[in-house]
Amino acid sequence: MDEMRAREVLTAAGFSGAAELLALGENAVFAADGLVVKVGRDATGHPELAARAEREVAVAEWLAASGVPAVRAAEHGMRLVEGHPVTVWHRLPDPVRPTEPRDLAPLLSRVHALPAPADFTLPRRELLGGVERWLTLAGDTIDPADADYLRARRDGFATAAAALTPHLPPGPIHGDALPRNVHVGPEGPVLVDLETFSTDLREHDLVVLALSRDRYGLDPAAYDAFTAAYGWNVREWDGCAVLRGARETASCAWVAQHAPANPKALTEFRRRVASLREGDPEVRWYPF
Fold first, then answer.
1. How far apart are the C-alpha atoms of 105 and 109, rounded to whole Å?
2. How many Cβ atoms sit within 10 Å of the Cβ of residue 47?
3. How far apart are the C-alpha atoms of 170 and 9, rounded to whole Å?
4. How far is Cα 86 from Cα 234, in angstroms, rounded to an integer?
5. Domain Aminoglycoside phosphotransferase: where (predicted)?
6. Could you give phi then psi for residue 19, rounded to 5 degrees?
7. Residue 106: CA count within 13 A, CB half-sphere
8. What is the layout of strands, in order, in the sheet containing 79-81?
9. What is the pLDDT of residue 282?
10. For position 1, what pLDDT does the model report?
């Protein structure tokens, strides 16, 4: 979905086609009429996209009822406009400062204290579920041996993850617990981007920043501030290496899908796979 098509859907939904584009990725996000409107990809033939948008609104309403600071839906439910899921949200005030990793900790603590919602079902966290699709999209651009290597890693880590004994009680998780998904407004930090909410090992939410520390250059002091605020360091858990390995596998495959159209993505894919093959857990990974 490109910006032009997203604006067509926005207009069909009754909003101004001249709205400000805030983001364009998995969804197109617009500021329109004092609200935020999220236009998803065409769900025709992909009912899971509509279900995900519907569930994101349900999650927002559940978090609101539970007292968890998070972005709030402005409409109950999702609109399906020309095949595209459209959701409408209250616009957050301007941030008062950049988000720090420690801002995540109290929000995750509150989410991790919640029981499963009563009115809808959260899916399992399918961390490795996209690997095959991403490798297929990469096609012949990547070395078939690398694709086979990642498939074998996927299968191995899926089996290992299923056998883990968690330190924390399983239950609702954010699913993509990174500082970019926290907005620090005048009243404090709030969670945003609720699409990945799921139910699984709570450790999934904590391994994200542990991997950021080891692979993406997160300052160790900032990571330590996060673990101090949360009250536990997932790196001390025996299962950390398994969830980390699963996330690294998924991250490599995700980069692969961009390789056919982006030479920098291909270079980064090769860097990541080589570091996994060599068993080097500290090789820096980069955006592209």
1. 6
2. 9
3. 39
4. 37
5. 35-240
6. -60, 155
7. 10
8. 20-24, 27-32, 35-40, 84-90, 79-81
9. 87
10. 83
Tokens of 52: 């995900």
Residues 112, 205 contacting (CB under 8 angstroms): yes
- Domains belonging to the chain, first-starting first, are 3-90 (3.30.200.20), 101-277 (3.90.1200.10)
Judged by DSSP in three states, 133 sits in helix
Task: Determine contact, residues 52/86, Cβ cutoff 8 Å.
Answer: no
- Both tokens of 145, joined, read 């041996």
For the four alpha carbons of 189, 227, 215 and 277, in that order, the dihedral sign comes to negative
pTM for this entry? 0.90
Residue 43: per-residue pLDDT = 94
From CA 184, how far away is CA 97, in angstroms rounded? 6
Instruction: Extract the runs of DSSP E, i.e. beta strands, from 186-288.
Output: 188-191, 198-200
Measuring CA to CA, how many Å separate 277 from each of 32, 67, 140?
47, 45, 20
**Cβ-contact 13, 37 below 8 angstroms:** yes
Taking the chain (288 residues) in consecutive chunks of 10 residues, what is each chunk's mean pLDDT? 93 90 91 95 92 96 97 96 97 96 97 96 92 94 98 97 96 96 97 95 97 96 98 97 97 95 96 96 91
